[in-house]
Design a protein that fits this description.
The complex is a heterodimer.
Chain A lengths: L2 H13 L3 E2 L13 E7 L7 E7 L6 E4 L6 H20 L5 E4 L2 E4 L5 E3 L2 H15 L12 H15 L8 E3 H6 L2 E2 L4 H4 L2 H8 L7 H8 L14 H17 L3 H35 L6 H20 L11 H25 L1 H9 L3 E10 L3 E2 L6 E2 L2 E6 L10 E4 L6 E7 L20 E8 L19 E5 L32 H5 L4
Parallel strand pairs in A: 2-7, 7-8
Antiparallel strand pairs in A: 1-9, 2-3, 3-4, 5-6, 10-13, 10-17, 11-12, 13-16, 14-15, 14-17, 15-16
Chain B lengths: L2 H11 L9 H9 L4 H8 L4 H7 L10 H30 L7 E4 L9 H12 L7 E4 L3 E5 L2 E5 L4 E5 L2 E7 L11 H24 L10 E7 L6 E7 L1 H13 L3 H6 L13 H9 L9 H4 L3 H7 L9 H6 L6 H8 L10 H18 L4
Parallel strand pairs in B: 1-2, 6-7
Antiparallel strand pairs in B: 2-5, 3-4, 5-6, 7-8
Helix pairs in contact in B: 2-7, 7-8, 14-15
The chains are: A alpha+beta, B alpha/beta.
Amino acid sequence: MSVLTSLARVHAYELGRAVPIATRRHVHVSDRPLVFVPLSMAGEANAPLACLVGSTPESPTMLVVPQPRNRDLRFRFAESLADVVLAYIDSFTMSMEQDRDQSVFTDAPQLVVANPSAAAFTRLLGRSTRLRRTDGPYPVAPSVPLLGRWLTYFAELTERPGSSTMLVMTTVLAAHWATGQSPIEDLNLAALVGWIDPWEGLTGPQAAAEAEDPLRWPPAGPATDPTFDNEVLAPLIRAYDLAVDDAGRARAVAALEQALHGQMEPTWRLLWRAIELMRKLPPGSSVERRWLRDRHQFTRQVEFWRDGGPPQPRRDHAVAAAQRLHWLERELEEYTVDRAFDDDLVMAEFRLSGEAFVGRVTWRDPTRLDTSGRRRRLRPHIVVATTDPVRLEVGDTVRSAVRPNQTARIVALSSPSPADPAHTDEPTSTRPVVEVTLELSGGMGRSLTPEPGSVPELGERLCYSSLVREPLRPVPFPSREQTPWTHGGPPEEYVPTDEDAGEDWS
Amino acid sequence: MGEDTEARLDRIRGGGPARRHNARTIAALTTNPGCARRAIMDAAGIDKARLAAHIGFPSQFGQSQFALARGNAFEAQVKADGCAELLTLLRERLGLTLPEVAYTDLNEVGGNDAPKLRHRQTRQLLTRTDDPGTLFDHPLLRLPVGGRQVYLEPDLIAFQWKGQYHIIEIKSFPVIDGQADGKKVAAAAIQSAVYVYAMREMLAEAGISPTVVSDNVILVCPKDFSNRPIATFVDVRKQLTVLRRQLSRLTRIDELLDLLPENLSLSLDRDPADVAFDLGCIEARYMPECLETCELARFCRDEAKGSTYVMGRAVSEDLGGISTVDGALALARGERDPAPDQVEAATLLRQAWSIRTECLGSAA
């Protein structure tokens, strides 16, 4: 966390409702997301118990595994889930457009789950189904391994900082609002939404207290409430096991469906409510560019598998892992800078740490020429007065989002002087003023007189920061055949084995 | 520990049988060693879940029968037929060449399961270092915690081979493609460390070098999505260091008791309001992590209302150690002059507040 978000938390505590820590939405929210609320059976590695899934709030599909320890019933669940998920994914492969020299689908699928545990469940469900075979000793329906590949695809993208292919709702909400409770308590979706948008007549803390009562707000899953397990679920599963005929089993399944629906439906509603909350926020200007990357990723993946590409391996080989890590780091940097440029409140973090400052232009020499070299160059000077705690130094280069092609080099920094009300935004401020002298280059046209508007005007309010948005460039990594001996040498080609395909799922 | 202390703790508990410490509660102590309330309740063997319910803050630590059933089934399977499956694993992991290994269950001594007896038996058998290879099930260990001897009822096997002991811990969470849930592994590691520690103490008493107990414990878990076990070495040296430090830091119970009113009682027979009042006399050190480990956490959270640490330690650190919400906001708004040790924090808070207000405009 940071001083700003921690301060926002105590403020939220005082107000009894969540407060924003972002003024823009930094994720893409699909018009037609696929919302997925899975429940699992306690104690098992990855035993699906039930789920609600669908892309409209009114009509979720409910799937239930009446005896989660039964392998056949699990695969039947996977098959039914595949019907929904694959149809949803296919619906995005109908129309393409051109993005420079590449074709890209006009939209891409987006999976929404409640919390990090649901994302982990999705990843494991993907892992346990993608290596299955449709022939041989333990055949499954062709849709099952395909479902596994796509669930793995979604889950892996949750690690990518700028990707919106899969939204983990508690994480997304907590990145936009601060509550008056701890991050541990924020993992409870109902409590988090309660702080942000409390239901009728309640304060945030009251709503959060209600959210901790599993009878009013069943856990968002995938883990179920232990008391529900012991008092409701166990007898119902036993009834299913003991049923002697189809009619009996149907009755048992109906009773299970009703009970499990009651556990999932509140989370289903909360997720759509959270989606609405996110939609109300105006998007940051770089959100669309990042979503375009998600669309390209989706397009490449569809084509890769259409051309017979294999499923994701159990583990990355060394080169792929290094590449992946490299990209994650670069994307995290890029995402941080993007958010700061899109959103004053995110930039505020950098102002507080002294890497950025906001102030007004108090003096300018727009036609100043640098005559020290052989050719004269246009190098205007401006002075920006700021009350921010600047920790930059003479010689540092800064930029403003308003004139992205212009660089400004700090040539002088005054020592802090008492506030001059005329130069600051807050007449009552007592914070000392620092005058930063900047030398501008670039973005002013070709002649020795700057184009109109290219040099900041007197009184113009600007934010300069040392943040740089560098384009993501591929970095040379060895091919997998040339994996160095330090990393185990060239790995064996990954071929899904019979053992993978027939793996127990018990 | 004197009879006085024992009697005093009994009085605080107020009748009913005492709950025993186990590796889990000792591991929890190390996560929040500064909490006197927890130390006293555990020392007195208080049922914290029932106490919490009694004073109106019921805990949410139910365990699903599905999880229990799965855990028991897996353990039974691994230990079945004289630990046949376990031995196969050990042969692979330890390069064990013995064709046969003895199995000794220390769950009872000749039909008697009195702790003292079992502990003596455990000590007798485990201090023999000439054993050719034996699996010991349910040895009963003893550990001084906060100046009080605590029996540990471990559900583990100590395996002795070539003069070295390995602690074997059986858990039912899966290891998938060589990876397991980090939190669960961490919990298993600290619990195993408690056993290693206790066993080393016991051997040290008998004049045997502690290095006889390996600090590499063997964790046995289901592999991938199956019921087949897989064994992994877990190095618990770091956990042992933490444990040693925290146990030595644990204030002696006597000293904690000296700070309390003479007639303090947490008996469930008393009026809930009175119990809550007495509970308030024992100093707690609440942090949000307690919600995951302590049955009484919700009571302590309620009591800590208005403090910055209810939102997490990171929040109070970010705010320069200012401990109350009101205090932090008053300093941030410049409504209160900082104390000498708060000057630096106050400057940062004021800057943060004014930048935030400026960014949000009227929305703040």
